[in-house]
């Protein structure tokens, strides 16, 4: 086992970044993508909300040709730093890192006895706080929208009933609630999906992504490229729809007789279709199985 985890879809990322001189890695993690971007000659701004990830990457990569910022990529602080950096390539590798998944103290796993934490930044409300304090309607929305769960309201009500007897504290509490609602045939796939839904809510992942995408696009120099690796259907759907809308010359309803929108495309899809991991990559890194890369290149006259 290597000390650092393998960066996902690295070859595809480097193909999109070809010729880049100033690259932003919005989700630095262990620094694998940033190391490769720097090796191809780009100066790098590495951003991560996890201070431990920043410290690891700094010890691995040093400070030559790379700057670091501890902040969520959608924050005002990060966007200001990116604006000043004037990048021609921006990368978002979404979701939780392999290192975070492997650290049971962070509570991203449904392995028995894991603490219900799930915070990527080590600050703010935990997953336990969310499960113990959120109204049933809010929990139902989380499980339905982020977890595609048809029995979301029943699960939310079950959680509210259980927390009245004892607060949720470990993975077992949530697993038991899921089993009660989904039945004895529920298994790891259900647990992974619903734990992921809670994690997305704890870290404001989808709303943050929706806010960040146009802001990141507007901070690229003309002709610059934005690459996003997603692992969740909601993430990919959001990215796909945004990129397609930006690439359309007209976004008015078809029945509208006169164009009142911007009237031009903001750039183009690059590549036109999403990129998936190869069989060889999946053999080396099974956790890349749900990864999907999409790219967008802003117009030269942006």
Can you walk me through this structure?
Strand 1 (22-25), helix 2 (32-39) and strand 2 form a beta-alpha-beta unit. The mean pLDDT is 91. The protein is α/β, with parallel strands linked by helices. The protein has helices at residues 10-16, 32-39, 51-61, 76-85, 98-102, 127-133, 136-145, 152-165, 171-182, 188-202, 205-218, 233-247, 279-284, and strands spanning 22-25, 43-48, 66-70, 89-93, 225-230, 267-269, 292-298. The longest helix is centred in the middle third of the chain and has 15 residues, at 188-202. Helix content is 44%, strand content 12%. The chain has 2 domains: 10-99 and 205-298, Vaccinia Virus protein VP39 (Rossmann fold), CATH 3.40.50; 122-202, DNA polymerase, domain 1 (Orthogonal Bundle), CATH 1.10.150. A 7-stranded mixed sheet has the order 3-2-1-4-5-7-6, sandwiched between helices.
Q: How would you summarize this macromolecular structure in one to three sentences?
A:
With 302 residues, the protein is an alpha/beta fold.
Q: Can you tag this structure with a few keywords?
A:
302 residues, Rossmann fold, 2 domains, 12% strand, alpha/beta, DNA polymerase, domain 1
Q: Which secondary structure elements does this structure contain, and how are they paired or packed?
A:
Blueprint: H1 10-16, E1 22-25, H2 32-39, E2 43-48, H3 51-61, E3 66-70, H4 76-85, E4 89-93, H5 98-102, H6 127-133, H7 136-145, H8 152-165, H9 171-182, H10 188-202, H11 205-218, E5 225-230, H12 233-247, E6 267-269, H13 279-284, E7 292-298
Parallel strand pairs: 1-2, 1-4, 2-3, 4-5
Antiparallel strand pairs: 5-7, 6-7
Helix pairs in contact: 7-8, 8-9, 11-12
């Amino acid at each position: 086992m290597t000390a650092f985890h393998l960066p996902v879809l690295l070859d595809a990322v480097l193909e999109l970044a070809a010729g880049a001189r100033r690259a932003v890695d919005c989700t630095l993690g262990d620094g694998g993508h940033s190391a490769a971007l720097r090796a191809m000659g780009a100066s790098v701004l590495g951003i991560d909300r996890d201070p431990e990830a920043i410290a690891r990457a700094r010890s691995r990569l040093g400070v030559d040709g790379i700057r670091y910022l501890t902040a969520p990529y959608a924050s005002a602080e990060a966007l200001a730093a990116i604006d000043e950096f004037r990048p021609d390539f921006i990368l978002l590798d979404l979701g939780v890192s392999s290192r975070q998944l492997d650290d049971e103290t962070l509570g991203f796993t449904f392995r028995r006895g894991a603490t219900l934490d799930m915070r990527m930044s080590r600050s703010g409300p935990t997953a336990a706080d969310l499960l113990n304090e959120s109204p049933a309607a809010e929990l139902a929305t989380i499980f339905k929208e982020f977890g595609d769960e048809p029995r979301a309201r029943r699960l939310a009500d079950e959680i509210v009933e259980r927390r009245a007897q004892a607060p949720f504290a470990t993975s077992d509490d949530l697993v038991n609630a899921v089993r009660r609602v989904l039945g004895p045939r529920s298994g790891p796939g259900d647990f992974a999906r619903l734990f992921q839904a809670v994690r997305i809510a704890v870290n404001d992942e989808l709303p943050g992504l929706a806010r960040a995408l146009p802001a990141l696009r507007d901070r690229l120099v003309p002709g610059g490229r934005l690459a996003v690796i997603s692992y969740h259907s909601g993430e990919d759907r959001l990215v796909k729809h945004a990129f397609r809308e930006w690439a359309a010359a007209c976004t008015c309803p078809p029945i509208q007789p006169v164009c009142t929108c911007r009237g031009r495309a903001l750039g183009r899809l690059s590549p036109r279709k999403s990129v998936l991991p190869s069989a060889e990559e999946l053999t080396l890194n099974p956790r890349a199985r749900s990864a999907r890369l999409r790219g967008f290149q802003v117009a030269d006259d942006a």
